C-alpha cells in the first residue's frame, strides 16, 4: 500500500492528523467537534483502560457510574468549578421532538417540552458526585471513599483535533473523600504516581511530575498535580492530572462526617483523570514518517507474520510454518496475526503493518524454510535480522520487551536533551523558537508575569517540577527575585 | 444488621425497589430519571460486560466508539426510527452558560450561544453509525462489518424505575453491515442466540427466543428477535433484542457496496443490544425476601468467611484458618472475602451478606477448629451443612457450580409452570389475573386485535416463539382463524 504520509519535517501537525486517520485510529464524525474512535484505535484504548483499571483496583478503588446530566443548580454550587466550565457546556433544554408542520418529514423541537431546569452534559463530574457523596458519607467509618468512573464527558471546544481536543471524549475520573487534609493530599500524590508509572512503564512515555500554577489549576482545586510529556515537535502535552480539592466541594455540597469524637467536619476531596488524549500522546511520542510505532504493551497486534510465496505449494508450506509459530506465540500470550490474504502482495502488507505500528514482523518464504531461518523486522528501528527458526518465539518475546524499553529510552533521551536552562528573556525566546522543549527558567511567582509571557510567546508554565531544587535567581521577564525554576513550554 | 425488607408477597414492586437500594446496587440521583450505579451493582455489571465482550469478540466483532450526539437532520433521516424515538429525546440546544445578571452567583443559558442545528443525545446509535458506515463501506471486501459499542444512551422516560426504566442507561449496541439479506438475518439470529446463551448459562435466567410482532418491533427494523424472561411475579421482561434492519438504514444513509460483479447495491444491516436492564432481571429472577441471590458467575464476592470468636486468642486462631482458606480459594480464582471487621457481630454480618446475595458463607469458630469441620451455608437454599476442613475448598468450588445450575433449574421450573395455554378470552383474563406468566393463545395476526387486548388487559404479545408448532385455531378475542399460538404477558 502507498502511505503518502506527510513527513514530520514537512508539517508535524499535518503528519499527525493524517496518521491518526490513515492508521485507522479515529476520524472526524458528522457531528461537529466529535470523533469516531475506529476499531484499531479503540483496541489500543481498551488496553490502556484494562491496565489503568487494574492499577486503580490494586490501590483500593472501586468503579461506579453517575448520571451524564447535571442540573444547572447543582452545576453552579461550586462557584469556581462552574465558572471554569460554564463557557464550554452542552446544555439540554428540551425533551421531545415533534413533526414540523411546515416541513413534511422533518422534525422540530417541541416548544411544549421545555425542561423546568436545564441540564448540563457533564464536562466533569465533581458536582453530581459530591451531591451523591452527601448521602453516602455520615461517619469516619464511611471514609476514605475511593471511587472511579469510566465515562464520556463533553466540553464544547471550537477548535478541535482528533484525540487532543474534542468536544466529547472518553476518560476515567476518580473522586475520593477523606477524613483529613493530609490523607487527601497523599491520595492526590499517589494517583499522580500511578499515572506516571502507567505513562512511563506501560506507554513508554517519560513524564515530569509537578504542580500546576494557580492559573493552570483545575477550577475548584486547591492544588493540581500533573504529569507532563514532551512530543517530538518540542511541544509539551499534559498527560494526566490529579487534584487536591481541599474542602471546596464538601462545603459546596455540605458533605460532613462525624469524626472519632462525634464532631461534624467537612470531608477532604481529590479528583484525578486521564483521557483519550493519551492516544494523541502515544502517537506523537513514538511514531515516525512511516506511520505508527506502538509500544508492545499497547499493540493490538504485537507480531505479524507475512508469507512470501509464488505458488500454491509454496503458500501451503509457508502457511504450515506460520501456523506453528502462531500457536507457539499464543501460548506465550503474544498477540499474533498471520496475514494470509491472497489479494495483497508482501510489499503492500509490509507497508500496511508498518503504518499500523506492529512492533515485530516476521517474513517467511521458501528459502527461509530451506535454511531454517526467518527474517525478523523491528518496527521501531526499521532494522531486519535473520533468526534461527528454533527458539525464534522466545527470541521475539524477549525482543518485545527490548522494544518496549528501547522506545522509552529513546523518548527519554529526546526529552532530557530538550530541557534547557535559560537565564534571560532573549535566551528564553531563542530556545523556544529554535529548539523547543521545556525551558527551565526563573519566574517571579505572579500570575501577571505568567500571563505576559504567554501573550508574548505562547509558552505557559507546564509545571513546578516536584524534584526541582531550591535555587535563588531572578525572573527571566521581570528580574524580580525567584526561589526556583519552573518549566515553560508551548503545549498541546 | 436489620434488613426490614418488604416481602414479595406484601408488595413485589416495593420489595424490588427497596432491595436494589439496600443491597447497594443503585439509587436515584439528584437528576430526574437518572440513577447512580453503586460500586456493588457496578461490579456485577462489569462481570456481565466482561463475559458479553468476550462472546462478541469470539464471534468476530470489534469495539469502536461513536459520538454521543446526533444532529437533528441526521436523526430524522430514517423516518420510522426517528418517529419511534422523537417523543423521548434529550435535546441540546445551547453550548454556553453565562452569569445571570439578575441573580448574583447564578448562571443562565447564554442566548447568544444557540446551536445552528440541535443535537439529540443518542437514544440509540443507528443514525450516527450508518452515516459513518457510508464512508467505511465501498466494496464487498469491506463486508461484513461487525462493530459493537459500549455506551450510555438517553430516552426521556416520565415514569422511571431503577435499572428497569431510566432516562439514561448503559448498554452495548452491535451494528453490522452485510452483503446479503440472508447473511444479515443469520447475524441477527446468531446474536439472539449469544444473548440467550449468556442469559441462561451465565445469569441463570431461562429465556424464550422469539420474534416481535409488527407493533412491538424496533422502529426502523424489518424484524426484531428477542429473548423474553419471566419474573417471579409472573410478569415478563424483554432481556435483549436483535434487529434485522433490512436495507432501511442503508437506504436512508445511502450506504452502497460494489458487489463481485462491480454493481452497486445497498448493504443489509442488523443491530442488537442489551442494557443495565439485565440487572433488574437478575434481581427479579433469583432474589428472595432475605435479599439478593446472586448466581456465582455474577457475584462480586462468591464466598464470604465469617469468624466466630470471643477472645483475641480465638480471633487469632480463627483468622489463621480463614487466611489459609482465602489463599486456597484465590488459587482456584474463587472470589473470596474474609469479613474480619471487629466492629460487627456475626449475626449482623450473616444478615448483611445474605442481603447482598453472596452465594456461599463459611463460618469458623473455635469449636470448628477443634473438630476439623466448618459450617457452610448456601444463600440460595438458606441451608447449612458441616463440611470437613480437608478438601473444603474443592467442595465449595464444586458447590458454586451446583448453585449456578440449581438457580437456573429453579427459574426454569417456575417459568415452565407459568406458560399456560388458553382457548378463550375468559380463560385468558382469568389466567392473567390469578396466575400470571406467559399465556399461550391464538391470535388473528392483526395489530388491531393486539391493541384491543392490550387496552383491555394490559397484556402484550411478548413474542412469537421460534419453536412454536404450527397449529390452526381461532383468535381468543375475535374468533378469526389463527395459524399458531403466540405468547402474551404483562411485562416490565
Automatic annotation (TrEMBL), chains A, B:
<dbReference type="Pfam" id="PF00587">
    <property type="entry name" value="tRNA-synt_2b"/>
</dbReference>
<dbReference type="InterPro" id="IPR017449">
    <property type="entry name" value="Pro-tRNA_synth_II"/>
</dbReference>
<dbReference type="Pfam" id="PF03129">
    <property type="entry name" value="HGTP_anticodon"/>
</dbReference>
<dbReference type="InterPro" id="IPR045864">
    <property type="entry name" value="aa-tRNA-synth_II/BPL/LPL"/>
</dbReference>
<dbReference type="GO" id="GO:0004827">
    <property type="term" value="F:proline-tRNA ligase activity"/>
</dbReference>
<dbReference type="InterPro" id="IPR004499">
    <property type="entry name" value="Pro-tRNA-ligase_IIa_arc-type"/>
</dbReference>
<dbReference type="InterPro" id="IPR002314">
    <property type="entry name" value="aa-tRNA-synt_IIb"/>
</dbReference>
<keyword id="KW-0963">Cytoplasm</keyword>
<keyword id="KW-0648">Protein biosynthesis</keyword>
<dbReference type="InterPro" id="IPR016061">
    <property type="entry name" value="Pro-tRNA_ligase_II_C"/>
</dbReference>
<dbReference type="GO" id="GO:0005524">
    <property type="term" value="F:ATP binding"/>
</dbReference>
<dbReference type="InterPro" id="IPR036621">
    <property type="entry name" value="Anticodon-bd_dom_sf"/>
</dbReference>
<keyword id="KW-0436">Ligase</keyword>
<comment type="function">
    <text>Catalyzes the attachment of proline to tRNA(Pro) in a two-step reaction: proline is first activated by ATP to form Pro-AMP and then transferred to the acceptor end of tRNA(Pro).</text>
</comment>
<feature type="domain" description="Aminoacyl-transfer RNA synthetases class-II family profile">
    <location>
        <begin position="39"/>
        <end position="295"/>
    </location>
</feature>
<dbReference type="InterPro" id="IPR004154">
    <property type="entry name" value="Anticodon-bd"/>
</dbReference>
<dbReference type="InterPro" id="IPR033721">
    <property type="entry name" value="ProRS_core_arch_euk"/>
</dbReference>
<protein>
    <recommendedName>
        <fullName>Proline--tRNA ligase</fullName>
        <ecNumber>6.1.1.15</ecNumber>
    </recommendedName>
</protein>
<dbReference type="GO" id="GO:0005737">
    <property type="term" value="C:cytoplasm"/>
</dbReference>
<keyword id="KW-0030">Aminoacyl-tRNA synthetase</keyword>
<dbReference type="InterPro" id="IPR006195">
    <property type="entry name" value="aa-tRNA-synth_II"/>
</dbReference>
<keyword id="KW-0547">Nucleotide-binding</keyword>
<comment type="subunit">
    <text>Homodimer.</text>
</comment>
<dbReference type="GO" id="GO:0006433">
    <property type="term" value="P:prolyl-tRNA aminoacylation"/>
</dbReference>
<dbReference type="Pfam" id="PF09180">
    <property type="entry name" value="ProRS-C_1"/>
</dbReference>
<dbReference type="GO" id="GO:0017101">
    <property type="term" value="C:aminoacyl-tRNA synthetase multienzyme complex"/>
</dbReference>
<keyword id="KW-0067">ATP-binding</keyword>
<comment type="similarity">
    <text>Belongs to the class-II aminoacyl-tRNA synthetase family. ProS type 3 subfamily.</text>
</comment>
Amino acid at each position: 500500500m502507498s502511505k503518502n504520509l506527510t513527513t514530520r519535517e514537512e508539517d508535524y501537525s499535518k503528519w499527525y492528523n493524517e496518521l491518526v486517520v490513515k492508521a485507522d485510529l479515529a476520524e472526524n464524525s458528522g457531528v461537529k467537534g466529535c470523533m469516531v474512535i475506529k476499531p484499531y484505535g479503540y483496541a489500543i484504548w481498551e488496553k490502556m483502560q484494562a491496565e489503568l483499571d487494574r492499577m486503580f483496583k490494586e490501590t483500593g478503588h472501586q468503579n461506579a457510574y453517575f448520571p451524564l446530566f447535571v442540573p444547572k443548580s447543582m452545576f453552579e454550587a461550586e462557584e469556581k468549578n462552574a465558572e471554569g466550565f460554564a463557557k464550554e457546556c452542552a446544555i439540554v433544554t428540551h425533551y421531545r421532538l415533534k413533526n414540523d408542520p411546515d416541513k413534511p418529514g422533518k422534525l422540530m423541537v417541541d416548544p411544549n417540552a421545555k425542561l423546568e431546569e436545564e441540564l448540563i452534559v457533564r464536562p466533569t463530574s465533581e458536582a453530581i458526585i459530591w451531591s451523591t457523596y452527601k448521602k453516602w458519607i455520615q461517619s469516619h467509618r464511611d471514609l476514605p471513599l475511593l471511587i472511579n468512573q469510566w465515562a464520556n464527558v463533553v466540553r464544547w471546544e471550537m477548535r478541535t483535533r482528533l484525540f487532543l481536543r474534542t468536544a466529547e471524549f472518553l476518560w476515567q475520573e476518580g473522586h475520593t473523600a477523606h477524613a483529613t487534609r493530609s490523607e487527601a493530599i497523599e491520595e492526590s500524590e499517589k494517583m499522580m504516581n500511578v499515572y506516571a508509572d502507567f505513562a512511563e512503564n506501560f506507554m513508554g512515555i517519560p513524564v515530569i511530575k509537578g504542580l500546576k500554577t494557580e492559573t493552570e489549576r483545575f477550577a475548584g482545586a486547591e492544588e493540581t498535580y500533573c504529569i507532563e510529556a514532551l512530543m517530538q515537535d518540542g511541544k509539551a502535552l499534559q498527560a494526566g492530572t490529579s487534584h487536591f480539592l481541599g474542602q471546596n466541594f464538601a462545603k459546596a455540597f455540605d458533605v460532613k462526617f462525624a469524626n472519632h469524637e462525634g464532631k461534624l467536619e467537612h470531608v477532604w476531596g481529590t479528583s484525578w483523570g486521564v483521557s483519550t488524549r493519551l492516544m494523541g500522546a502515544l502517537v506523537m511520542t513514538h511514531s515516525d514518517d512511516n506511520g505508527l510505532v506502538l509500544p508492545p504493551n499497547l499493540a493490538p497486534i504485537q507480531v505479524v507474520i507475512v508469507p512470501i510465496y509464488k505458488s500454491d505449494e509454496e503458500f501451503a508450506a509457508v502457511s504450515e510454518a506460520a501456523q506453528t509459530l502462531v500457536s507457539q506465540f499464543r501460548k506465550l500470550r503474544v498477540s499474533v496475526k498471520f496475514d494470509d490474504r491472497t489479494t495483497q502482495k508482501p510489499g503492500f502488507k509490509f507497508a500496511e503493518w508498518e503504518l499500523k505500528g506492529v512492533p515485530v514482523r516476521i517474513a517467511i518464504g521458501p528459502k527461509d524454510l530451506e535454511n531454517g531461518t526467518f527474517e525478523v523486522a523491528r518496527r521501531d528501528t526499521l532494522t531486519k535480522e535473520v533468526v534461527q527458526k528454533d527458539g525464534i518465539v522466545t527470541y521475539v518475546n524477549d525482543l518485545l520487551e527490548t522494544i518496549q524499553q528501547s522506545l522509552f529510552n529513546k523518548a527519554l533521551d529526546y526529552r532530557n536533551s530538550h530541557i534547557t536552562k535559560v537565564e534571560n528573556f532573549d535566551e528564553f525566546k531563542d530556545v523556544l523558537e529554535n529548539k523547543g522543549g521545556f525551558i527551565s527558567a526563573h519566574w517571579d511567582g505572579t500570575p501577571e508575569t505568567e500571563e505576559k509571557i504567554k501573550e508574548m510567546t505562547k509558552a505557559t508554565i507546564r509545571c513546578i517540577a516536584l524534584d526541582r531544587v531550591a535555587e535563588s535567581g531572578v525572573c527571566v521577564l521581570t528580574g524580580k527575585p525567584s526561589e526556583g525554576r519552573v518549566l515553560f513550554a508551548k503545549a498541546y
